[in-house]
Design a protein that fits this description.
heterodimer; A: about 500 residues; FAD/NAD(P)-binding domain; B: about 160 residues; three-stranded antiparallel sheet; about 30% helix; globular
């Protein structure tokens, strides 16, 4: 038998991903007394989505009072919906303050993770051929990370400038150019109004119209920001904003049949559209034909209005082909384009993104294959039987749709409880039992009939919420329930094994 | 001969009292007791102050007619709670031992929370040419280093010679 003493491992915990999930995991591990961690990030800076996405107009989609850690609330947000650079600065601030930077490895892409059954640890392979070993792994890889390129014929033959919104090239001058934007998702909604005024001509290629709701945004002038420093104010503004977020997504989507929120939202959305867009024909094209909530809705006070501009044209005919000089639609129209902006989003619940590297558990089982055979499932979105010591922040059925920061903190409560018991009992292997996992899977599927996703009109929504099996791996619970469960679930749902724990 | 390779000003003991720190980057290396005396003065004029604190002590802002012991410590803890809003900074300023000393010093917590001031809890490993290096390997570049009277400068210097 090979002996692998504790000290031979590089780290107690390896965190894969340096976005807000990774940063939150690092801080909460440190607070819980697990200081021996390493945060591994593929990019050349921390902040994840906010490091990569710098396209014009990038901003948060939910109020900033909710989009921050509960233990690190800022008084300095410049707007209710803060711009992206403030989020990036916030990430840097957290990393500095909690001394995470020292335990961060940038420019390191993980290509494989394999569980060593003899020594009960994970062996992570990097793209450079290095190996990092750690007892536990926290998968903080997020979902909106890998840009998805459209599968359109001829895209490689295009001779002009192409850029994906998530990899915006700020050296490209759009002034006086003919620009095409493919896609009308969350990124497009923010990009289009921000570039419309400077380009010569903007063509927007739309497949599925997005639900666009008015954004209750406003600048936070200095007096307000000073008032935020009064004790208790941050807490109150957070509570109000959390309630708003909770009502607009998790409750509306998961309890669609009980709560009439979606109906109200649709009326608000249609009203917003009617007032914003003058041309009835364009308005017709921008009207969604699926229920609100099937697909990620957007909030904007400028997106719909942009289509009133003379230099902005909405094209709904499907794209046939991309030529060296532009785009040809199915009806034979040629659009000449200088700059092609791909606002085509990210790989989400699909192969190659959950996570983006190979994960091999007990008995050489591959996580992706296992999920392909058994559908997406994970105990509370955190752990999967057969993959001990591997904890995800955003696994299937982990995220309920409220603030992402809630998710990070909730899942870390769960994970830290497991690690603490392991440390206390001397266990080296922590694995969720198949029974507990099956029970949870049954429970989430049982709540399906309440959810908005499974009504007929959603089939036309073309939404990234759906995976290959037609499942929507969101956690069908209100946020309070997720917080309660993560701190109260029975730890016997896990098996704690290993040298000392055997006794 | 200077005991270290540091190119800037190294102030030992009470030397800091008569100095003008306007526009300078300063590092203060001292025990909690000493730092609480030095930092409020230095932070008033220096452009940036990095405070390298050894183990923290509990502080009271004024002499109170309270006997030493648990009550005095609770009052000092209350003082910390009321003076420092940020839980992480509070945690860094909370002594680890069961019965920490209570010292009467005013203005330390307020000075630490000024934007030009930052607390480091990493021990100083060595004094180098352009400043000092903390134990996790970061080099902090400063113009002036203020050493508290109770800091053993020789140990820093000797260690540096080993490296060189």
């Amino acid at each position: 038998m090979t002996v692998t003493p504790e000290c031979a491992l590089d780290h107690e915990v390896a965190i894969i991903g340096g976005g807000f999930s990774g940063i939150g995991a690092a801080i909460l591990l440190e607070k819980a007394g697990f200081g021996d961690y390493l945060m591994i990030e593929d990019g050349d800076g921390v902040g994840g989505a906010w490091h990569w996405n710098t396209y014009p107009g990038v901003a948060v989609d939910i109020p900033s009072f909710s989009y921050q850690f509960s233990f690190e609330q800022m008084a300095g947000w410049s707007r209710v919906y803060a711009p992206g650079r403030e989020l990036k600065a916030y990430a840097e601030h957290c990393v500095d303050k909690y001394d995470v930077r020292r335990r961060t490895r940038l420019n390191t892409r993980i290509v494989s993770a394999a569980f060593d059954e003899e020594g009960d640890f994970w062996r992570l392979g990097t793209a450079d051929g290095d190996t990092i070993t750690a007892r536990h792994v926290v998968g903080a890889t997020g979902v909106l990370t890998q840009p998805k390129l459209p599968e359109i014929a001829g895209i490689e033959t295009y001779a002009g400038t192409v850029m994906h919104t998530a990899r915006w090239d700020h050296d490209v001058d759009l002034a006086g150019k003919r620009v095409a934007v493919i896609g009308t998702g969350a990124s497009a909604v923010q990009t289009i109004p921000s570039i419309a005024h400077e380009v010569e001509h903007l063509t927007v290629f739309q497949r599925t119209p997005i639900w666009c709701l008015p954004k209750l945004d406003s600048a936070l002038p200095l007096p307000v920001r000073l008032a935020m420093r009064v004790p208790g104010t941050k807490r109150v503004s957070r509570l109000v904003s959390q309630t708003f977020v909770e009502l607009t997504f998790p409750l509306a989507a998961h309890f669609h049949d009980v709560l009439p929120v979606a109906g109200v939202g649709e009326r608000v959305g249609l009203n917003h559209l009617r007032r914003a867009v003058k041309d009835p024909e364009v308005r017709e094209k921008l009207t969604p034909r699926y229920a609100l909530g099937c697909k990620r809705p957007s909030f904007s006070n400028a997106y719909l209005q942009a289509f009133n501009r003379e230099n902005v044209f909405l094209e709904t005919a499907p794209i046939d082909e991309i030529t060296p000089t532009g785009i040809r639609t199915a009806d034979g129209t040629e659009h000449e384009v200088d700059v092609l902006v791909l606002a085509t989003g990210f790989k989400v619940f699909e192969k190659g993104n959950m996570p983006a590297f190979s994960v091999t558990g007990v008995g050489g089982v591959d996580l992706e294959k296992w999920w392909e055979e058994h559908r997406f499932q994970a105990y509370q979105g955190v752990s999967v039987p057969g993959f001990p010591n591997f904890f995800a922040i955003l696994g299937p059925y982990g995220y309920n749709g409220s603030s992402y920061f809630n998710l990070i903190e909730t899942q870390m409560t769960h994970i830290v409880r497991c690690l603490r018991r392991a440390r206390r009992t001397g266990a080296t292997r922590v694995e969720v039992t198949p029974e507990a996992n099956a029970r949870y899977f049954e429970q989430v599927l049982g709540r399906r009939r309440h959810q908005v996703f499974f009504q007929p009109s959603c089939q036309t929504a073309n939404s990234y919420y759906f995976d290959a099996n037609g499942d929507v791996p969101f956690r069908p619970s209100p946020t309070l329930e997720t917080m309660w469960t993560s701190s109260r679930f029975d730890l016997d749902d896990y098996r704690f094994e290993g040298a000392a724990a055997a006794s | 001969m200077s005991p270290t390779a540091f190119r800037g000003d190294l102030l030992v003991g009470e030397d800091w009292r008569s100095r003008d720190f306007r526009g300078l980057r300063v590092a203060v290396v001292a025990s909690a007791d000493e730092a609480a005396r030095i930092v409020p003065y230095v932070a008033r004029s220096a452009s940036s102050v990095k405070v390298f604190q050894r183990s923290p002590a509990l502080l009271l802002p004024a002499r109170l007619p309270v006997p030493g012991g648990p009550l005095r410590r609770s009052l000092a803890r209350l003082n910390l709670r009321l003076s420092v809003d940020d839980p992480w900074l509070r945690r860094q300023l909370t002594p680890h031992d069961d019965r920490p000393r209570v010292v009467v010093r005013r203005g330390f917590y307020a000075a630490l929370q000024q934007p030009n001031c930052k607390l480091y809890t990493w021990p100083v490993y060595a004094i180098v040419e352009q400043g000092l290096r903390s134990a996790e390997g970061v080099e902090h570049r400063v113009d002036v280093i203020v050493l508290g009277a109770d800091v053993d400068i020789a140990s820093c210097a000797t260690r540096e010679e080993h490296i060189a």
